[in-house]
Amino acid sequence: MDLRTFPDDRDARNVSSYRPDGIPSSWYLTAADVLNFVRDLWSVFQPSVNSRFDDIDRHILRIALESTFRGRTGTEPGADRSAFKAWLQSVVDYQSFSPEIAASWIAVLNRETVPDDPTIFSCSAKPAEERESSHFSIISRAALLLRIASGATAQLVERSGLTASSIEFWWNGFGQARGLWEGQREVGTLTDLWADIEEWLEQIRDFETKTSHAERTFYRIGNELGRVLPDLASCERVAVWGIAD
Asked: Percent of the chain at pLDDT above 90?
């Protein structure tokens, strides 16, 4: 995370928020691209039984290991897959996994399975000054910061000797204030917040199935997915299920 880019993101947000639209040129977003981005963004935050951030962490780890290999050897991992795989094997063997789990990790880290990174990683590398992609790049960097901030906060809570129940007064009030749920909620049900997201993403997939690329306009999205849009903006739920582990 290059924290020096965030002032540029702030300036870009200010321009889009306060400069009259159309001066010097209108901001133009393609509705179909926005739907793809939103679906991809939420997909990386899907929690699993073992981890609140299983998917996004796998990608972060893979990118970090590729960067380490590149820095140590001067070779791109994709240019010498056999050498990279041998190096990965030494890293994974150190974890003392079972043969099945080790093979699964090697396949993921060597891009034999799930070869492509989610969109947020490529978008996060683009500068905020690129008007054609600045909206995606700023949101992508914010999403990665959300993961880092949630993890750091969860670690701080754990090291303080606290539990999710210890801060229930905060996250229960927070969730109600943000309209994420009604009444009191049990800590064990927080990952159920993903079920809402999954339902809304399914509605987007249904919309895309019955419409052509050209028909996916913001007007039709507003008419047919109007109930979904505000809820997909509720990224606070990611922080809640990430912190109250």
From this structure: 52
Q: Is residue 24 part of a domain?
A: no
* Same domain as 133, residue 91: no
Q: Span 66-76, mean pLDDT?
A: 95
Q: Where are the alpha helices (DSSP H) in 74-217?
A: 81-93, 99-109, 119-124, 134-159, 168-177, 193-210
Domain that holds residue 72: 49-117
Last residue of a domain, one of 86, 117, 148: 117
Q: Quick one: 67 and 78 in the same domain?
A: yes
Judged on CB neighbours under 10 Å (0-12, 13-18, 19+), 102 is: middle
Start-to-end C-alpha separation, the chain: 24
Region 26-55 average pLDDT: 87
* 114: pLDDT strictly greater than 70: yes
Question: For residue 25, is it within any domain?
Answer: no
Nearest-5° angle of CA 203, CA 205, CA 207? 70
The reply to whether 176 and 215 lie within a common domain is yes
Assess contact for 178 and 234: CB atoms under 8 A: yes
Entry pTM: 0.82
